[in-house]
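User: Predict the structure for this protein chain, please.
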Amino acid sequence: MKKKNATKKRPNGIGGTDANKLVHDDTWLELYDLKVGNTEPDDLSDVLPVRIGTITEDLNREWFTKEMDLRVTQETQIWYNKYIYGNLDGLVVAGMEGEDVPIAVFEAKHSGQFMDTPKQHTNLLDRYYPQLQHYMMCAKLKKAYLSIFFGNRTHKIFTIEEDRKFQSLLLKAYKVFWIAVNTKRPIDTNWREFHDITDEPIAVSQ
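Assistant: Here is the predicted structure, written as structure tokens:
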């Protein structure tokens, strides 16, 4: 019996994981092919790290709340405009119960224990920086918390601040990319060629 594809069906637009691909990948063609329907999304139902990350999201929210004494909402989808959206793992909220005031983006991840070193922390923050800036832009918030389980022994929280210059570059890239998708005229370029910069994340471990 053929297994059902466990990958979530995403809206027609540019999401947070797309931001990572646009910034970090060598070319935009793979994402372009996916958006115009030339290729299908990967089936992640048998990818163990992905499944573990999904299953531990609720525990991650609970652990974050315990460590930070801050409440976190469930998953939420926020649209920046007609083609830019974010599927957030949650929003960190303040205020009385029932009168939630969003103060930050919450993003849950699960990584291997071997990634719990200062060098690998930097690599992780660099990898997810575009996604977190994308989510902050969609949610109109100035801060994001990246909550990571390392293996089954360690939990760490990293704070990423809003970077408006980086977000403006994302918006510029999105516009060019989405015109290519709508006109079905692919662009063979990459982030560095497009902006003549590389991303340089600034984050603080809590």
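Residues 158 and 205 are 4 Å apart (CA to CA).
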